[in-house]
Amino acid sequence: MAYTPQVVDAKIVSDNPKNGLFEVLAVLKDRCQCRIGFERTPSGEEHATHVNRLFTEPCPVCRKDFLCNCMTKFLPTIAEQALQIVKTKA
Ligand SMILES: [Zn+2]
Fold first, then answer.
1. Per-residue confidence (pLDDT) for residue 1, from 0 to 100
2. pTM value?
3. 2 band by pLDDT with thresholds 50, 70 and 90
């Protein structure tokens, strides 16, 4: 697949210190927006668990404007870029 997600902005939108779960809202270069769920492992690493595309724009991969699972394929890439941006801002 030719699609290469490029995260241009990201911010933490929810953070639960008790269970180590947090969510990041990521904005992609193609204006696609995703909420990415993370969990912190006991060793302090962030691990992406899921991604939900917001329906502000049609999916950049399949062009649907409703639920699809395309972003799940790109979760590792999107999550890594989003975390980098969040940490740069912090
Ligand atoms: Zn799609």
1. 55
2. 0.92
3. confident
59 alpha carbon – ligand 1 mean position (Å): 5
pLDDT at res. 86 = 96
28 CA distance to ligand 1 middle (Å)? 14
Cα 69 to averaged position of ligand 1 atoms, centre (Å) = 6
- Give the type of residue at 6: Q
Q: Which residue has the tokens 């909420």?
A: 35
Q: How far is the CA of 43 from the centre of ligand 1 (A)?
A: 34
